[in-house]
Amino acid sequence: MPESNPQPTGKIFSHLVYIEDVPEQGLDLSISADPAARQALAEADGLAGIESLEADFHVARQGLETFNVSGTLRAKVTQVCVLSLEPFDSEIVEEIDVDFAPPSEAARAAESAGTIVGVPGAPERDPPDPLVDGTIDVGALAAEFLALGLDPYPKKPGVEFAPMTDPEEKDGPFDVLRKLTDRG
Fold first, then answer.
1. Residues 125/112, Cβ–Cβ less than 8 Å
2. Residue 14: which of 136, 147, 96 has the closest Cα?
3. Nearest alpha carbon to residue 59 among 19, 112, 115, 104
4. Angstrom distance (rounded) from CA 126 to CA 97
5. Is the pLDDT of residue 123 over 80?
6. CB of 53 within 8 A of CB of 38?
7. Are 38 and 74 in contact (CB under 8 A)?
8. Cα–Cα distance, 31 to 145 (Å, whole number)
9. What count of other Cβ atoms lies within 10 Å of the Cβ of residue 142?
10. What is the pLDDT of residue 168?
11. Cα 148 to the chain's mean position, in Å?
């Protein structure tokens, strides 16, 4: 697959596709984050580390200035278990399907949507994201879908929550409260 040139834009992981370079049949490209970008993304997403982050994209024209970006993000990350505080490795795979349009058209679509996606009677697709200076940043899109694919409360496989109880204690905290409310 051909690769477009990464361009720095002040974002953690940026890889710009210029819409004028997208042929009628679309553009296929693969990107991967270098070690510095993986480290910065890990810090931004609260991860212990990111071993790899790769994405394959297809950028398709849907008109003169509207585009669809579809593809798959794959990442190997190290998270910290919220129960044991131990690091563990996991794989993230996220399907990507996002439309892009000129800023004025994207804003108009967002205003007219005005409803929540997934609710009966609501639109089936999110409104398009705006094109920025005639570009689509597929690196930023990959970073966004990585963050969306992370479990906000990661749990290491096999670790279970065990409530702290004292076997000698016959009355738990709720039993004590129940006794207090039964008095009145």
1. no
2. 136
3. 19
4. 10
5. no
6. yes
7. no
8. 14
9. 30
10. 57
11. 2
List of residues 6+ apart from 35 with CB closer than 8 A: none
For residue 173, name the pLDDT band (cuts at 50, 70, 90).
low
Three-class DSSP category at 100? strand
Amino acid at 147: A
With a cut of 60, say whether residue 146 has pLDDT above it: yes
Average pLDDT, the chain: 85
Token couple for 143: 């970073």
Looking at residues 48-68, what average pLDDT do you find?
95
Helix axes 35-44, 138-149, angle to 10 degrees: 50
User: What is the b/e burial string over 12-33, where b = at least 16 CB atoms within 10 angstroms of the residue's CB?
Assistant: bbbbbbebeebeeeebebebbb
Given its phi and psi angles, is residue 167 left (phi above 0), alpha (psi -120 to 50 degrees) or beta?
Answer: alpha
* 140 pLDDT above the threshold of 70: yes
Residue with tokens 């398009």: 128
Give the separation between CA 128 and CA 106, rounded to whole angstroms.
5
Burial of 175 (0-12, 13-18, 19+ CB in 10 A): exposed
Q: Distance between CA atoms of 126 and 123, rounded to whole angstroms? A: 7
